[in-house]
Write a structure and sequence with these properties.
- The protein is mainly α.
- It has one domain (2-121).
- The chain has five helices and no strands.
- It has helices at residues 2-34, 41-49, 54-66, 73-82, 90-120.
- The chain is elongated, with a radius of gyration of 26 Å.
- It starts with a helix and ends in a 22-residue tail after the last helix.
């Protein structure tokens, strides 16, 4: 008889843990689906397990979509979790995501410019003018 009570208590505890984990996620997930964002439910579960606010992330993602941004949900989640100053409101989070996108785009452009500048300095120091940048034999140089 005691085993039945223990099994029932374990079942109630498991249901309580599941309700704690999933309960607060249903409303943000439904809002995201209604807005056509198609955010998978497991994404929200991982956000909840990491200590994030799913409602704020979904609202910020909706604001970003309205503004024309294509920031992926994972990027919004990272900004939310790593920038505590942006955790005040969905608007603040959306602004911070846009700032981070602009910063990363500028960094990427600078890196591409460096690569183009390095490619402009070829051929290599070996002085082999008969080999192009890709290592393909250049018949015109012969």
């Amino acid at each position: 008889m005691i085993y039945i009570w223990l099994a029932a208590a374990a079942l109630v505890a498991a249901a309580g843990a599941l309700a704690w984990l999933i309960g607060p996620l249903i409303a943000p997930w439904r809002r995201a689906r209604a807005a056509g964002m198609g955010v998978p439910f497991p994404f929200l579960i991982t956000l909840r397990l990491r200590g994030g606010n799913a409602g704020m992330v979904m609202d910020a993602l909706a604001l970003l979509r309205e503004a024309g941004s294509a920031a992926p949900p994972e990027f919004v989640q990272l900004v939310h979790l790593h920038c505590p100053e942006a955790a005040g409101s969905p608007e603040a989070l959306a602004r911070r995501v846009e700032e981070e996108e602009a910063r990363l785009a500028a960094k990427e452009a600078a890196m591409k410019a460096k690569v183009r500048a390095r490619q402009g300095r070829r051929p290599h120091a070996s002085g082999d003018a008969g080999v192009s940048e890709a290592g393909v034999h250049n018949r015109e140089a012969e």
